[in-house]
Amino acid sequence: MAIERVLTGIPGFDEILNGGIPKRNVVLLAGGPGTGKSIFGYQYLFNGLVRNQPGVLVALEEHPVQIRLSMAQFGWDIVPYEERGKFAMVDAFTAGIGEAAKREKYVVRAPDDFQMLIDVLRSAVKDVDAERVVVDSVTTLYITKPTLARSMVLQLKKVLSGLGCTSILISQVSVTERGFGGPGVEHAADGIIRLDLDEINGELKRSIIVWKMRGTAHSMRRHPFEITDKGLIIKPKEVIMVTQRREE
Question: Which burial class, exposed, middle or buried, applies to 62 when counting CB atoms under 10 A from its CB (0-12, 13-18, 19+)?
C-alpha cells in the first residue's frame, strides 16, 4: 500500500525523504542557535497554506506579532489565512499580557500549564481543520522539568496524530550537544531531523541530516543547505563532511 505523504515544499528536502513526511508523523526538528529551525517550521506551514492545507503554529518563545513580521520578511504573509480561518497561532508566550496579546484568538493564559496548552491547541486544530502543526519550541515546555520531556512529547504525539496532523516539534540543543534535546524524546518522535552549523575550514556551514523517519526510506547523508530571502534551500545532491564537532 502506497504511503500517504505530506510534501514540505522546502526545496530539496522532500527529495532526501523520498517524497515527503509520512502523514501523521510527529517529527523532532533539533538544532543549535542560528541553524534555521524556526524558518524551517514557518516554511513548512506556509507551503501547506498555499496547498490548501490549514495549519497551526504554537508560539512558545516569541511574541506572535514578531512571528508574523518574521514570516512576512520571507514573503509568507499568514494574516489573510488567519482571517479566512485557515491558519491559527496559539499564543503560549504572552500569557495574554499586553495590548497586542488581547487581539490573539488562542491564548494559553498559563504557559507553564501543559494541559491548558493541549486544550487550546486542540481547539485551534479543530477550528481551522489543521493538517500541519509546528510547536516552537517544545524544549520550552520541559526545560525546567527535563524528566517530563518524553511524556510531554508522547502526549503531544497522541493528540496531534489523533487529530490527523503531520507535525514538527522544534527542539533546541546547545552548540556542542550531540543529542536531540531532552531525555528520551528521540524515542517518542516518529522522525528526527537535525540542523547544524559547523566551522569548516574557517567558514560556518549549515547542514541537515535525517536521523530517522518512520514509514519511509531516506537519505543517510549530511546535506548542505542555505537560508535565502525565500527560506531554506537544501542541496540533496551534495554531501558535507563534518570531521569533528567543537567540544567545550
Answer: middle
Q: In what order do the strands lie in the sheet with 231-234?
A: 106-107, 87-91, 55-59, 132-136, 166-172, 26-31, 191-200, 203-213, 223-228, 231-234
What is the band of 247 on the pLDDT scale with cuts at 50, 70, 90? very low
CA pair distance 36, 58, nearest whole angstrom: 17
The alpha-helical segments, DSSP class H, found in the chain are: 13-16, 37-50, 64-73, 79-83, 114-128, 139-142, 149-162, 185-188
In DSSP terms, 88 is beta-bridged to 56
CB 59 within 8 Å of CB 201: no
- Choose among 58, 26, 21, 23: nearest CA to 155: 26
pTM over 0.85: yes
Cell readout for 2 is 502506497
Query: Does the structure show a pLDDT above 60 at 179?
Result: yes
Domain chopping of the chain, boundaries = 5-234
Q: How many other C-beta atoms can be found within 10 angstroms of the C-beta atom of residue 238? A: 13
Q: 5-234, which class in CATH?
A: alpha beta
Kind of pairing, strands 231-234 and 223-228? antiparallel
